[in-house]
Design brief:
Elements (H helix, E strand, L loop, with lengths): L1 H12 L6 H8 L6 E3 L3 E5 L5 E5 L15 E7 L2 E6 L4 E5 L14 E6 L3 E6 L4 E5 L15 E6 L3 E6 L4 E5 L17
Antiparallel strand pairs: 1-2, 2-3, 4-5, 5-6, 7-8, 8-9, 10-11, 11-12
Length: 187
Amino acid sequence: MFLLKSISDAIYDNDYPYDVMGIICEYVPHKQRIFCGCDHFIILKNDGTLYSWGNDGFGQVSNTPKGSGFISVSINGNHSVILKDDGTLYSWGYSCIGAFDIPKGLGFIEVSSGGWHFVVLKDDGSLHSWGSDDYGQVSDTPKESGFMEVSSGGWHSVALKDDGTLHSWGDDRNGEVSDTPKGSELI
């Protein structure tokens, strides 16, 4: 993540007229290309466009954005969130609790969908969450920066910090939070 920030600073400090995420994404292979919801699918094609099929009961197929520049997709059942190469987010599908309350602005580099909540990682290492907060999966999102990766489950999330430590929050009925390994020896 600090690599992205360093590249960004280097390019913008030298007045290059390029979109940093677009440049990076052109050379870095996408981690995942096919995504499954409850009963619909989305493919992220090599040219940055999306193709979807399946049940369209909540517009999860017909409202799939057109155009290109998409670099990541995350689905939670019948709702999808995408990340564009300019660092912006877009969402569509089932209007679950707070699903359309996506953060505005630029600088998002990763998105993860839980059961009824969403978490995004910004290029400054901060996390932002929205959606259902039944188990603190939104309100307990760590406020500090220095995060490199995030992943969400049903009602909980975990994030990896640049010092190798893991931070979990949300539902702890099965030890999702309290059993999170301590220290940095796992990474």
